[in-house]
Design goal:
By secondary structure, the chain is mainly alpha-helical. It contains 8 helices and no strands.
Length: about 170
């Protein structure tokens, strides 16, 4: 939804959280450090907190869909961004569903990493291709590329979820 909002309302890309993330990605820290900071660390730490510590306290709730709904809302709120709330809430619900059904945090951490990895890589390479300017990377054109990438991921995601649930 960030890409759609970025295409329809380009001025929304100037929001503080999106700008801060993009400025970090376009910094001189290098690709591997950026991936570590934006994809690896959140996948481990956020999953340990959200799907580990917090979800463990909801195991007494008998209906799994209630746990998934609550955890999705928590994950959306946890990211403290109105612009990204819907994305993160849906992602949090999907990752929580995997943990509730399979009791497997490794799988949810891997999926979390892949989502962050693709988003971070897109942002990093968009900023590199625009001459390391964070403002230049946040254009409707880069959002169109991001939207296309996310649509492809969205098409493939159900297959990966089914395969993951079979593991």
């Amino acid at each position: 939804s960030i890409a759609i909002v970025g295409i329809l309302i380009p001025s929304s890309l100037e929001a503080g959280d999106v700008q801060a993330i993009n400025e970090f990605n376009s910094g001189s820290s290098g690709y591997l450090l950026t991936i570590f900071a934006m994809a690896v660390t959140p996948a481990i730490c956020e999953e340990a907190i959200q799907r580990g510590a917090i979800i463990a306290n909801f195991r007494t709730i008998k209906k799994d869909w209630i746990i998934v709904l609550i955890m999705g809302l928590f994950f959306g709120i946890f990211h403290m961004s109105v612009l990204r709330f819907i994305n993160t809430a849906i992602m949090g619900a999907c990752l929580s569903y995997i943990v509730v059904k399979k009791n497997n945090m490794v799988l949810s951490s891997l999926m979390h990493f892949l989502i962050n990895f693709v988003a971070t890589s897109l942002s990093y390479f968009a900023s590199v291709n625009s001459g390391n300017s964070a403002a230049a990377a946040l254009t409707a054109d880069t959002m169109k590329v991001a939207l296309g990438t996310y649509l492809l991921m969205g098409f493939a995601a159900p297959f990966f979820i089914v395969i993951g649930l079979m593991l």
